[in-house]
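Re: weekly structure request thread

Next one in the queue (663 aa):
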Amino acid sequence: MADIRKRKKVLLIEPNYSNKFPPVGLMKISTYHKELGFDVVFYKGDLKQFVIERIADKCINEFTSIDNTIDWYIRKDLFVEYIRTKRKYILQQLHISDSEMEILLSAKIAEYKEYYWKGFWEKEPEWDRVFITTLFTFYWNITIDTINFAKKLVKEDGLFMVGGILATIQSEEIERATGIKPHKGILNIPGQLDKGDDKIIDNLPLDYSILDEIEYKYAMSNAFYGYTTRGCIRKCSFCAVPTLEPIYNPYIPLKDRINQTREIYGDQKDLLLMDNNILASKNFPEIINDIKDCGFGKGAKFTQPDMLAISIRNLKQGINDRAYIRKSQSLIMEFYNKLKGEESFDVYKILMKYHITKYITSKKENIISAYNELKVIYDKHLKPSSKLRFIDFNQGVDARLFTEENVKLLGSIAIRPLRIAFDDMKTQNAYEKAIRMSHKVGIKDFSNYLLYNFKDKPIELYQRLQINVELCDELGISIYSFPMKFHPIAGEYSHNRDFIGENWNRKYIRAVQAILNSTKGKIGRGKSFFYEAFGHNEDEYFELLEMPETFILYRFFFKWLDNKHEASASSWRKCWTECMSSISENEKQQVLDIIHTNVFNEDIQTQFGNPLITKLLSYYTNYRKDIITEGTELYKLKQEYDKNPTKALRRKKRIKQREYLRL
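Done, posted below.
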């Protein structure tokens, strides 16, 4: 049975969407299959390109079997490009004429070109098993396209499995769109993939090597990933966890998995735990001890190991050639790009000698040979430094479960930042208490998500942000607030980002997003920063929500425009105040309905006979394109402002101060 499995191939796919964290589920599935002797490949990117690269590999193998006097692999990029484009000048660059077998080789590459373009590859699938992970519901289109394409890659009698978040919460919709019945939940029962196998896949160590098989780089890198618990005791209606992990598991041992990862893949700086409600665990003290034993006690430091040496070692041992060719080549090029002078030239000669300036043409034996030659120079520059290491409970901890005992335990590990959800004003007391308790045990850095657009009111977002800013000021701590717009996990709006909560409207949503655009999505400590972004009080906050989006996005520019152009924040504000105080209640409601739909065109200005209303609505329609349209007056003023906006604002402030003194 083992001999049969050694010949089988497994393809792991993550759709080509942007995400911060690696696919932990696929990393466990990789470990499972490698322990059984399967060949495993991970891919994230354009699947058509992946198919072309696999076809190019087959073509190169045949070229080599026909004429092995030429190293065809170092021309792989040309094979790929020719099969992809069919362009003759690329074929000429392959220099097939260098071979005495030119006629036979020319026929062979033409055959492989047709093999791709006529879709013959679809009739000869390569993979025995294909696994696709899924993430958020608003990635619906790219996920469905990936599944439908990947169906062509698996053999007729092979296993095709779609799993993950979207697959679990919208399994019926996926089946209707693809004909594939997804796997729901996690792989936490023995024998789910192979009857009689006693392994629990969800408990297996992660195969970190697969992350180096792809060009995509996850934002959260150089970290151990894992769970110490599964599930959650809460049943929040906006959350997918009760569906994904319906049974709460209070303890999953951590040490063995971390130690195994450290031994094979090298030490990692940080520890990122994705538990959904770790404080609910009765084994929480035991979990904290595990964390400390893994080297993440308070004040723990990390010294970067020689990752190139580890990569070369793993390459020599054949742990994952696809991954460690890419990683080793990348680290060597990163090192080369830092060199100067004679050393740079010496290393460059080595890179050219072994054809490793590009990943796609880098061969295992060439990487190893190049490393042996440049190692002396590399070791001379290797000066690892120590850094503080951190642990992050990325899904946050539950403020309602804070006690004196467990907060002391939190304070005994290298936690930074501590994430405490503040999704509802109803939890204000518990939230503030949790922050104060954490501060007492020495935790000073927090990073919290604030859900909005659910059942909350717009003013409650302002209030929660203000509470965080005031806590920062009072306690001398740092809280980064991340307002997070609610999206349904099922129903009409689950496949896009168009949902509007019962107390919100489209204009308010866009206004918050415009504000966050200037703050890069987060609000840190500092009252002046917060008040500038969201208003000094609740009235100013609502005024910002009503303000034309263009004025919010280019707020400092429009402030600079005061008294220079009719398009300024102060002129809009004056018109808004006059309009809201003078028109009838019926007209006011009609105007607000238009503004709150956030759909503006020139026709809306003609709907009213009142010139004041027409003027007000003109602020929402007249300047949206002007500011980015070359040749307009507003565009020219923006160019003038962009030359030195800070200086301009300071100059304007001094002018106002002088005018005030004259009074």
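The longest strand covers residues 154-164. The two ends are 94 Å apart (CA to CA).
Next request, please.
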